[in-house]
Amino acid sequence: RRFRQLSAAYGAKGLSWWVWQFSGARQWTALGSAFTPIGARRRDTYPLLRRGNRSDLVVWAQQHLMKLGLLNVVNGNYGSGTQNAVRGFQSSRGLAPTGQVDSATWQALLPSGPAAIRWGPKRGAVRVAAAGRRASAQPIPLNAGRPARRNELRAAPGH
User: Fold this and answer.
1) 118: exposed, middle or buried (Cβ count in 10 Å: 0-12, 13-18, 19+)
2) pTM value?
3) How many degrees, rounded to 5, is the angle at CA 39 between CA 34 and CA 42?
């Protein structure tokens, strides 16, 4: 499902689930022939993050903010604490303090690098060390415990 969403966001007009094991001479000949590219051109853009978002990208932004000493919790939830940390970061860099992680904010934030996070062996425990501080326990990100709804890449038993 996520692959299909990303394909649509990228501008792809369709998907191909071509499997080489079931291809004959005709398909291999077509694969090697010249073609005219179709579809939208690639756009290199940064994702927009704002209050209410919950994702791995939020975790990534939070790790960067934590390394700078602007945030104390990495939980994957873009709440008021993350929004305030982003506003503070934006103000310190001369960016418009929108509280949203936009392209300009990503470009200023990424060079700092993420805080080092050591995920604990037990669910619900995370060790975080950032900005010269001692490691502290953090709740595991909200999206880390979500089970997959279905396996789209199901393998044969034993593989």
Assistant:
1) exposed
2) 0.56
3) 105
